[in-house]
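Private note to self, pasted from the team thread so I don't lose it. Backbone tokens:
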């Protein structure tokens, strides 16, 4: 009886994470369908706006008082959350979804590697660099990847790295409302960009249903599911499972957007995924110095 209970306690968070990844990448695919109508900037505004609305209704952040010490981490967290979304949507204007996710993944991968300075970490660095070399249009690569889009994706990854660092700091000080408050901050700073570009047409009746779906699938649902999963499994397991996200993105892009990758691109993406899994599994918590 206990073994069945143990299995279910492990399977539930794993299922939650898989659903969250599918949700995020399906939302990104839907958002890309909006690009011809409202542009990447408009899609970013709609995602953040509707995501903030849903998360605010769910978590009721007005009940949380942000402490003075938690104000700066929260502000930075919200800004990099918005920047991550904005830059990622800019990248998928010219990149297949799976490639953009793989390049963006260099951000959390860097955080994982920098957290553990052991000889084995050089293996993951080399593997990640090999994957980047294959994907980026350098060294005679035949992957036909747009350089501007790749720079946007890697920049989104840098924001993701800061999101991890400051999200943890903000979460410790402000609890479960952190995601809702951070998304609200992101919406305040980045929604005006889409509004300026599109005006009131951003709220067209034909756009709003898809926009609501993007907000729920890309932000509200996955963030909530990931939070539930993190309470039930170690961070290391969570990070390992999240390493599947580039593949989920590629499959989502293939099904919804008809984006097909070359064998070389799949290889480069797989190298980054393996580097991410390896870095997550071999990470060793830093011990405090004792005098």
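Design output:
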């Amino acid at each position: 009886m206990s073994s069945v209970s143990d299995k279910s306690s492990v399977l539930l968070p794993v299922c939650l994470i898989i659903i969250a990844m599918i949700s995020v990448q399906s939302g990104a695919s839907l958002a890309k369908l909006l690009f011809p109508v409202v542009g990447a900037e408009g899609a970013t505004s709609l995602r953040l706006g509707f995501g903030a609305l849903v998360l605010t209704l769910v978590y009721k952040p007005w009940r949380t008082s942000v402490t003075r010490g938690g104000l700066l981490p929260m502000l930075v967290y919200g800004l990099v959350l918005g920047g991550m979304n904005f830059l990622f949507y800019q990248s998928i204007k010219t990149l297949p979804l799976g490639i953009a996710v793989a390049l963006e993944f260099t951000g959390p991968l860097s955080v994982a590697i920098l957290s553990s300075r052991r000889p084995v970490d050089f293996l993951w660095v080399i593997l990640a660099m090999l994957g980047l070399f294959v994907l980026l249009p350098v060294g005679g690569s035949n992957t036909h990847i747009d350089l501007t889009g790749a720079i946007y994706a890697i920049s989104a990854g840098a924001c993701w790295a800061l999101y991890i660092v400051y999200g943890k700091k903000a979460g410790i000080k402000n609890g479960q409302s952190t995601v809702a408050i951070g998304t609200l901050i992101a919406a305040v700073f980045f929604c005006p960009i889409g509004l300026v570009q599109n005006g009131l047409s951003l709220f067209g009746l034909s756009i709003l249903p898809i926009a609501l779906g993007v907000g729920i699938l890309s932000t509200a649902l996955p963030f909530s599911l990931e939070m539930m999963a993190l309470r039930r499994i170690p961070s290391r397991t969570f990070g390992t499972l999240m390493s599947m996200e580039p593949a989920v993105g590629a499959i989502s892009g293939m099904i919804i957007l008809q984006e097909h990758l070359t064998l070389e691109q799949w290889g480069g993406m797989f190298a980054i995924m393996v580097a991410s899994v390896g870095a997550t599994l071999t990470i060793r918590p830093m011990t405090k110095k004792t005098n």
